[in-house]
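Q: Please design a sequence for this.
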């Protein structure tokens, strides 16, 4: 059985102020670094075979901090880069709701293309790591999309607010993915 432990990156200054990051490459802040260290302390190296990360700074540094302890084979995959939200990036929730109440931000990555990209990444992990335990450090919209697809819309996008450095687990069994748990934060102070 293949499993994927999905970890959302630690906090950034834009997370702390409610700004939409998307593809904008914002680094972790001090809280985000601490959250990544707490993930590292919680996770056990023997439980995982490989660590995959989005190439964006906030995810990559979270993954590097975790891997300082776990020392796993490590790779970046562009498939798990955060969705581009175009003109909505950098705006607070209030600014976004005022300017774009329908959430249709000009120049954003189309939902269909985003879904195709992320789920192609999941297919790649399934093929490349059969019966392995994968750690995947990614972003809120990416993880929510995965949870939405895997749960057939029961959880995920527009239903679940994923916290920074939360852990969610999915597993591939009998030719389908299932959600084991999601948005776990007991490891964080």
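A: Design:
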């Amino acid at each position: 059985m293949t499993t994927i432990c999905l970890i959302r990156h630690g906090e950034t200054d834009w997370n702390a102020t409610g700004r939409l990051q998307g593809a904008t490459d914002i680094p972790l802040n001090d809280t985000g670094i601490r959250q990544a260290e707490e993930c590292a302390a919680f996770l056990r190296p023997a439980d995982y075979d490989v660590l995959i990360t989005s190439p964006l700074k906030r995810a990559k540094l979270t993954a590097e901090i975790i891997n300082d302890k776990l020392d796993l084979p490590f790779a970046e995959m562009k498939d798990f880069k955060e969705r581009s939200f175009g003109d909505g990036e950098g705006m607070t929730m209030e600014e976004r709701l005022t300017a774009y109440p329908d959430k249709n931000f000009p120049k954003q990555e189309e939902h269909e293309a985003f879904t195709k990209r992320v789920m192609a990444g999941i297919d790649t992990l399934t093929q490349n790591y059969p019966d392995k335990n994968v750690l995947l450090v990614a972003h809120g919209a990416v993880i929510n999309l995965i949870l939405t697809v895997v749960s057939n819309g029961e959880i995920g996008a527009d239903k679940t607010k994923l916290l920074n450095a939360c852990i969610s687990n999915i597993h591939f069994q009998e030719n389908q993915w299932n959600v084991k748990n999601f948005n776990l934060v007991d490891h964080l102070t």
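Q: Thanks. Anything notable?
A: The CA atoms of residues 79 and 121 lie 5 Å apart. The first helix runs from residue 13 to 16.
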